[in-house]
């Protein structure tokens, strides 16, 4: 008879009460390890007691919203607006371009298709620090399509470099290859063209993969630091990552203000994952089963 074990491979007691007690203890330990940093951040943000540099609160004393208001006064509001604009537009363009590129790579036969896919995957192996200087020089010479001047210190400069990303192209290409060709052939017999097939057949079936790409794409764009550091040259173009970094290096701000800015940076990522969790999990599961 096999001895029951936990997820960590530990032997569980045979007694039912002891087994439940051990499981509760393990769950409490895991909850403490993962939830305690978040709880201390929230407690520090809403605590009105002055804290020393590097000190945090475990219990919020003298509940206040002053740290959040101070963080917005020091640029969090503008940084949040810029990050929402850049992430929203950039993610839409990224998923759209990736879907069209994946459809061409998965369904169209043309000479050099394997080389194109290899070139796309090669960009994932190149650290962004390697192309930082060439990217800065290129952005300084390309005119801004939304206004005068170049792409530096503009929304276009923050958005256009994140549109092309290899990961969603790779994920969607592999997912589209699993869709039966008979569906597309039946649609062509009925007179459907490529765009109609793409929008009415391919994209609806790729919804789980699109959800996965949306989650990864949002996190990639929202957490961008090097690109805004290169492009944003004035405070009104700073994204949340630059605002939080500036506050964290400032000796004038309290820990409550810094934690408030960090909390505002973290909350959107958690909300997006919770909203797209079902599609994300379906996309990962389908990819593991079909890939």
Description:
The protein is mainly alpha-helical. It has 13 helices and no strands. It has helices at 16-45, 66-107, 113-122, 132-139, 155-159, 166-177, 181-189, 194-205, 207-222, 226-231, 240-249, 255-275, 277-290. α1 (16-45) crosses α12 (255-275) and α2 packs across α6 (166-177). The longest helix is centred in the N-terminal third of the chain and has 42 residues, at 66-107. 28% of the residues are buried.
Secondary-structure class: mainly alpha
**Main β-sheet: number of strands, strand sense, barrel status?**
none
Percent strand equals under 5%
The global form is flat
* Low-confidence residue ranges: 287-291
Q: Indicate the percent of residues in helices.
A: 55-70%
List the helices and strands and how they pair.
Elements: H1 16-45, H2 66-107, H3 113-122, H4 132-139, H5 155-159, H6 166-177, H7 181-189, H8 194-205, H9 207-222, H10 226-231, H11 240-249, H12 255-275, H13 277-290
Helix pairs in contact: 1-12, 2-6, 2-9, 2-11, 2-12, 3-6, 6-9, 7-8, 9-13, 11-12
What characteristics describe this protein?
13 helices, flat, mainly alpha, 291 residues, single chain, 67% helix, disordered C terminus
Task: Please give a quick description of this structure.
Helix content is 67%, strand content 0%. The protein has helices at residues 16-45, 66-107, 113-122, 132-139, 155-159, 166-177, 181-189, 194-205, 207-222, 226-231, 240-249, 255-275, 277-290.
